[in-house]
Specification:
- This protein has 510 residues and is mainly alpha-helical.
- Helices cover 70% and strands 7% of the residues.
- The protein starts with a helix and ends in a 10-residue tail after the last strand.
């Protein structure tokens, strides 16, 4: 029991001693931290005082520098103000001097005005006196004399004005003709198209003459079927290895030509096969017609063209007129019309549209007996085209009067496209007749020995008798022949008339 008590006491004493030691250690640590905090605080205070002193010194220096700068600026402003003040004083003195000069000039002007008024009064009195004396001498009043003078001046002014107007009109006409020629020549030079021959027949080559019998068929059924389906005449004659297709409708002629070429190439020729090929080729030609119409519309940049008009334009691809393809001619007219309209300030869109559609009646599918201008105008009017375009179509051959400048431009473009050199091809007979007509006109004049049309009829060379035609009379003969050619013949371009007169002396040595 005593040992237990001793152990308990020992434990209690140990605990008490440990607690006391910890308390003493904690107290020591706390004292050290407080001392360290005081030391840090003192150091911070010292640094703050040093920074404050340094900042005060820097602020003082900055204030001194700013004060010095302000003093310098103030001195400069004072100097500038003094200069301005001196300048203003000088200007004021100058103004006062000029004011005194102006006052002197005003006084002088006032004196001059008084003198002028006095002189005007004297002149007026003298004028009245002279007028009275003139009225007595002329036996007429002042108003009557004034009226006579005014009438004379009016007459002279009207005469001079008319002379001036005539001069302006003459110069304007000459200038307008020159400008028009320049525009037309420039338009022609900017455009050129190919020329194709106008024919109403096509020839299909055959591999052998044996194929002619197969084309005819038993009792002629093959050729009858082909003619019935295509609407053409197929001519089989003695021409070796060739068949001729004749038709005035170029579309039907083209369908028959392509169909017959395919039948010959395929070798199977009988009514059913003929019908099949003709139907197929008809659809292909129909697509070609639409494609050609679309192509020319696209090339010209024309929009809002209906399918019926495009199809009618495409049909022109297979038509020719005097050796000129009608679709290419219409395209050419549209381009020329657009060029001319752009030069003169007209509506280029209307001019191009009217030029392209001016021959559209030639591609219309109708049995009407009206001319192509009326058919074309009726077609485009029904399809809602602009009235100016309708007038361009109606007026391009002079059937109606042009109602707009674009219609006149289309007339000019159509004439240029049709009449320019190389645009159309004459037949051989017409060409020979024109040359003979030129020579006959020249031979009809007295003293002409012979005449020769050369350079495709562009020049006429005439030989005259030197005994009966003098040099002076040669000029009269040349002028007379040129005038008769202008009056009696129609021709593109111009024809040069050359008179050749020579005096020959021939002697023989025997």
């Amino acid at each position: 029991m005593a040992n237990v008590v001793t152990i308990l006491l020992s434990c209690i004493v140990g605990i008490a001693v440990g607690y006391l030691g910890r308390w003493i250690y904690a107290k020591f640590k706390l004292t050290s931290a407080e001392q360290q905090a005081v030391r840090i605080n003192q150091e911070a205070m010292a640094k703050a005082e040093a920074s404050a002193k340094e900042l005060m010194l820097e602020t003082r220096d900055a204030l001194q520098k700013e004060q010095q700068q302000n003093e310098r600026d103030a001195r400069e402003r004072r100097l500038e103000l003094q200069k301005n003040e001196r300048r203003l004083l000088q200007k004021e003195m100058n103004l006062e001097h000029k004011q005194s000069e102006l006052d002197a000039i005003r006084r002088q002007l006032g004196e001059k005005e008084n003198e002028v008024e006095e002189r005007e009064r004297l002149v007026s009195e003298r004028e009245n006196t002279l007028t009275s004396e003139l009225e007595k001498v002329a036996s007429m009043s002042r108003e009557e004399a004034k009226n006579i003078i005014i009438e004379q001046m009016k007459t002279e002014a009207v005469h001079d004005g008319q002379v001036y107007i005539n001069k302006i009109e003459s110069e304007t006409q000459l200038q307008a003709d020159k400008i028009a020629r320049d525009i037309i020549v420039t338009s022609i030079q900017r455009l050129a198209t190919e020329v194709s021959g106008e024919i109403t027949t096509s020839s299909v080559s055959l591999p052998s003459d044996e194929m002619k019998g197969r084309i005819i068929g038993r009792e002629g059924r093959n050729i009858r079927t082909l003619e019935t389906l295509t609407g053409v005449d197929i001519i089989i004659d003695d021409t070796p290895e060739a068949v001729v297709i004749s038709c005035f409708d170029p579309v039907r002629k083209e369908i028959a030509r392509v169909a017959l070429e395919r039948l010959v190439q395929d070798g199977r020729i009988h009514p059913a096969r003929i019908e099949e090929v003709v139907n197929k080729v008809s659809k292909e030609v129909g697509r070609i017609i639409v494609d050609e119409g679309d192509k020319v519309v696209f090339d010209l940049g024309i929009h809002n063209m209906g399918p019926e008009l495009i199809r009618a334009l495409g049909r022109l691809h297979f038509r020719t007129s005097y050796g000129q393809n009608v679709l290419l001619h219409s395209k050419e007219v549209a381009i020329l019309a657009g060029m001319i309209a752009g030069e003169v300030g007209a509506d280029t869109e209307i001019a191009k549209r009217g030029g392209l559609l001016h021959d559209i009646g030639k591609g219309a599918e109708t049995e009407s007996e009206a001319n192509h201008a009326e058919l074309g105008a009726e077609l485009v009017k029904r399809l809602g085209e602009d009235p100016k375009v309708v007038n361009c179509i109606l007026a391009h051959h002079g059937d109606v009067e042009p109602s707009c400048i674009e219609a006149v431009i289309v007339q000019i473009a159509d004439a240029i496209s049709a009449a320019r050199p190389g645009a159309r091809r004459e037949s051989l007979d017409n060409y020979i007749k024109r040359l003979e007509s030129l020579e006959n006109i020249a031979k009809g004049f007295e003293g002409v020995e012979n005449a020769y049309a050369i350079q495709a009829g562009r020049e006429l060379r005439i030989l005259v008798n030197s005994d009966t035609v003098s040099d002076e009379k040669s000029r009269e003969v040349a002028l007379g022949i040129a005038q008769r050619i202008e009056a009696e013949l129609r021709y593109p371009g111009k024809i040069k008339v050359t008179i050749i007169r020579e005096y020959r002396i021939v002697e023989y040595a025997r």
